[in-house]
Amino acid sequence: MSDEGVTKVPNTAIAVIGDGCAGLSFAAKAASLPEHTIHLFSPQSNSSKHDHVWGYWKMDWMKFVAPLAFKTWYKWSIITANTEVEMQACHHPYQAVKRHNWLAHCRNNAKQNGVKFSNDMLSIDDFPNEQVFDSRPPKWRANMMVQHFIGWEVRAEAGSFNDDCAILMDFRCDQSRGVHFIYCLPFSDREALVESTLISPNIEQDEFYEGAISTWLSDCAGVKFFEVLRCEKGAIPLGLMQRHDPDLQGVGSNCGAIRPSSGYAFSFIQKQIATALNQVKNGNKLSFSSPHKKIDLFMDRVFLSVLRNQPHYAPTLFTRMATRLTGDEFAQFLSGEANIILRLKVIMAMPPWPFIRALLRLETVA
Ligand SMILES: Cc1cc2nc3c(=O)[nH]c(=O)nc-3n(C[C@H](O)[C@H](O)[C@H](O)COP(=O)(O)OP(=O)(O)OC[C@H]3O[C@@H](n4cnc5c(N)ncnc54)[C@H](O)[C@@H]3O)c2cc1C
Prior knowledge:
With 366 residues, this protein is of the alpha/beta class. Helices cover 29% and strands 25% of the residues. It has helices at 21-27, 99-112, 206-220, 266-281, 294-309, 314-324, 327-334, 340-349, 352-360, and strands spanning 12-17, 36-41, 53-57, 71-73, 75-79, 84-88, 94-98, 116-118, 131-134, 145-155, 165-170, 179-186, 191-200, 227-238, 249-250. Strands 6-5-11-12-13-10-14 form a seven-stranded mixed β-sheet, with helices on both faces. A five-stranded parallel β-sheet has the order 8-2-1-9-15, with helices on one face. Helix 1 links the parallel strand 1 (12-17) and strand 2 (36-41).
C-alpha cells in the first residue's frame, strides 16, 4: 500500500500503436503514470501530414487543452431556409485547436516524461511483456452512415465574417444527397474555415463539397472574392465498429470514442484517457473503455436512423434542439454530460413521429 492507502501497480510496460490523436494525447500524460514505461509505435509513416481544426466544447476534462485553443466562441448558430437560432453559452464555449499544434505539444510532453518513440515495423510478438493498446482506425461496416466533408480555410476582405459567432450548421445548401450543412468557424472578420458536411452512406466527388462552399460563400455570406489558404477533408464513420485487431485492446476511435450522432471525437478521446488514468490512480490496471453512456448510444442510434431514413427532418430537429436548450445545455448534451432532465428536455423538443418510425425500424440502423 502507498502512503495514501492506494495499491501501487508494479512497473508496467505499455505499448501504444499509432501516433495520432489518441496515441499522443495518452503519451502526453506519462507523468500521471509513474509506475509505467510507455513505448509509442508508429510503424507506418501514414499519419496525416495535413493540418486540420478540432472543434469541441470546453468541459472540465478539456481545461488543459484550452491554452492551445486559438479561438473561442461563446455564441453559435443553426440556420435553415426560414430560421436562424443563435445560442449563447456562459460556461461551455466552443473552442478550436489546430491538430499540428496539439500533437506537437503532446509529443513534447511525452518526450520530456520519458516516452520512447519507435518507427520500426512490428508484430504482436514484439510485445511479449507489454500491455498493448492499438489506436489504428476501427473497421468500417458496409453501408454505414458517415460524416464526410471538405473544408476550406479562406481569406476575404475585412468585415466578411462575424467572428463572435460560429455557425455550427447552415442548411441553406443542396439537401438531395443526405443531411447536408455548412459549418463555418470565423477566426477573424477576414478568415474562416468553411466546410461542406454531409451525413450519408455515400462519399461524393470533391466538386460537390467545393461547389457547396463557393455557393454558400457567395449566396449566403455575401463573399464573392476569397483566397483558399488551406483545405481539409475527412470521413468519420458514425456507429459502432469492430476494433482494428480484435486481439488487441483499443484506444481512441478504435475504442468507441467517436460519438455516433455527431462525429465528434477529440473531446471524447481526452475524456476516455482521463477516466483511464483515474482508474489507475485508484489502483486498477490501465484499460480504456467507451467514453459514451449506454443511454447516449441508444439515443444516438435512434437519431442516426432518423437521419438515414428521413434526412429531410434534420434542419427541424437541430433547430428545435437549439431553440429549447440553452447554449450550455446544448454543449453538455453534445459532450455526453446530459443528466436525465436534460435528456428529457431533448426528447420533448423532438417531433414524435420520425422517432417512433425510427424506433420501429431500429434493426436497419447503421
Ligand atoms: C479532417 C478531420 C477533421 C475532424 N474534426 C473534428 C472536430 O472538429 N472535432 C472532433 O471532435 N473530431 C474531429 N475529427 C474526428 C477525430 O477527432 C479524429 O479523427 C481523431 O484524429 C481520431 O483520433 P484517433 O487517435 O482515434 O485516430 P487518428 O488520429 O487517425 O490516429 C490513428 C493512428 O493510427 C495510425 N495508423 C493508421 N493506420 C495504420 C496502419 N495500418 N498501421 C499502423 N498505424 C496505422 C495513424 O498513422 C495514426 O497515428 C476530425 C477528423 C478529421 C479527419
